[in-house]
Amino acid sequence: MRSWWRGRTADTVPLPVVAETDGREVRPAVRPGVRPGVGPAVGRGVRHEAQPPAVRIRGLVKRFGGFTAVDGVDLDVARGEVFGFLGPNGSGKTTLIRMLTGSIAATRGSIEVLGENVVHHPERIASRIGYMSQKFSLFGDLTVEENLRFYAGVYDVPPERYKERRDYVLRMADLVGHEQARPDELSVGLKQRLALGAATMHEPELLLLDEPTSGVDPVARRAFWDLIHDLAQRGVTLFVTTHYMEEASNCTRLAFMYRGRIIADGTPRELRTRTLSSPVVEVRLERQGPGPKGSEGGEGPQGHGDAGRADALITHLESSAGAGVGDVYASGAAVHAVLDGPGAGDGTGAGDGTGAGDGAARLERRLRAEGFPEAVVVPVTPSLEDVFVTLVAAQRRV
Ligand SMILES: Nc1ncnc2c1ncn2[C@@H]1O[C@H](COP(=O)(O)OP(=O)(O)OP(=O)(O)O)[C@@H](O)[C@H]1O
Ligand SMILES: [Mg+2]
Question: Could you report the per-residue pLDDT of 355-390, keeping only the tens digit for each?
C-alpha cells in the first residue's frame, strides 16, 4: 500500500476530469494502483522530427459559465522547444495549460499533446507530461524526500527506479543534504527547484511550468533557467509561462495571450523586429549639469532623472497624443514612446530606420520647447517589453 497517497491530490497531478459544472472541475478520486500506463520517456539524442508535435491546438475555447477565458486558440509547439507563454493577469494562460494537462475539459476545439487526443483521452498523456502549477504544489507536512516519493507514486515511477530518480532530482535541484527538510524551511528558489524536480520524477517528455519563477530572486531565477535549459538539452520540451521579459527572451518561441486570444507569436527576434510597424524611441531625462549630452563623465542617461519628472513626461506625451506619438510607457528609468508612422517594420528594428532617427530628433526638439529641456530622445530596437506593451495597448483600443 502506498501510504503517501492517502487523502492527497495535487494540482500538479494531471488527472482526467469526468464532469464539469459551472466551471468547477470534478476529478475522479485517486485510487492507488489504478494509473494510466507509463509512456516512453525521451532520452538523450532523440530525433524530434520523427515524432508528433508536443502540442497542437485548434479552435480551443473554454467558457466558465457565461465568461470566455480561452477564446478560439490555435497553437503549435514543436518537440524540443522552450516555448514561452506570456500574457497579462487573467488572460487565460493557466486555463489553457490546465486543458493541456487534461485537468479541465475544453468547451470546444481540439488538443493534441504528444500525438494524443487530450479532449477524448486525457489519461493517455498523464504519465508523459510533468506539470508545475502556478499555485504552490508541494505538501508542507511532508519532507523533501517524501514529496518526491509522493510524486513518484502519482506518476508511476517503477519502484526499482525510484532511488535513481530521487538522487538525480536531488542533485539537479541542489537539494542534497535537505532531504529531511520541510518545504517551508527552504528558500523560495529551492522550493521551486523541488517543485520542478517533483514534476520531472518520471522523466516526462513535455514539461508545463506555470510561472515557475514568480517570487524568486534574480540569481535563483537564473539558476532555475539553467535547469530549464539542461532539461531541454536532454530532449524535454518545455512550455513555460512567465511575466519576466528577460526569461521570455531565453525561449525558442513565444506566444502572447490577451483576453483569451493569442495576439502574436514567433521567435523573440521575430517579435522584436517584425511585430511593430512604427518606430520606438527612448526618452531620457538627463540631469541638468556640465557636459554635453552622452559625453563621458556627464551624467548617465538613465537612473538619474527623478521619477516625478518621468511621470510628468508621460502625462505630457499622453495629453498631446496625436502629435506624432502613440503609446507611451515607463521602461525602467526611461520612457519609451511608439512614434506614429513607419520605421520598424523593415525587419531590422526601429533603431536602424531613418524614419526613427528623424522622428526622435523632432520629438526631442518638441519636448525641449515644451518644458523638458533635459530630454534626450534616441531610437531603440524594440524590446520584448515594447512589443508586449504596444500589442496590449492596441488590443485595448479595439
Ligand atoms: N474555475 C474558474 N471559474 C471561473 N472563472 C475562472 C476559473 N478559472 C479561471 N477563471 C477566469 O478565467 C480568466 C483567466 O484566468 P487564468 O488563471 O487562466 O489567467 P492567467 O493568464 O493564468 O492569469 P495570471 O497571469 O494572473 O496567472 C480569469 O478571468 C479568471 O478569473
Ligand atoms: Mg496563471
Answer: 678 889 999 999 999 999 999 999 998 889 899 988
Identify the helix (H) or strand (E) that includes residue 169: helix 159-172
Q: What is the architecture, at CATH level 2, of domain 274-397?
A: 2-Layer Sandwich (3.30)
CA gap 284, 294 in Å, rounded: 11
What tens digit of pLDDT does each residue of 22-34 get?
333 333 333 333 2
The number of the ligand 1 atom at minimal distance from the alpha carbon of 62 is 12
> How buried is 194 (Cβ within 10 angstroms: 0-12 exposed, 13-18 middle, 19+ buried)?
buried
Pick 3-266's CATH classification: 3.40.50.300, 3.40.50.10490, 1.10.3720.10, 1.25.40.10.
3.40.50.300
Count of residues making up the chain: 398
SS3 for 166?
helix
Nearest to 209 by CA among 132, 126, 97: 132
C-alpha cell belonging to residue 170? 536531488
pTM tops 0.90: no
CA of 24 to the centre of ligand 1 (A): 12
Cell of 336: 519609451
pLDDT at residue 259, as a whole number? 96
Report every protein residue that has its C-beta within 5 angstroms of ion ligand 2.
93-94, 134
| Ligand 1 atom closest to Cα of residue 96 | 18
Confidence of residue 344 (pLDDT cuts 50, 70, 90): very low
Cell matching residue 334: 526611461
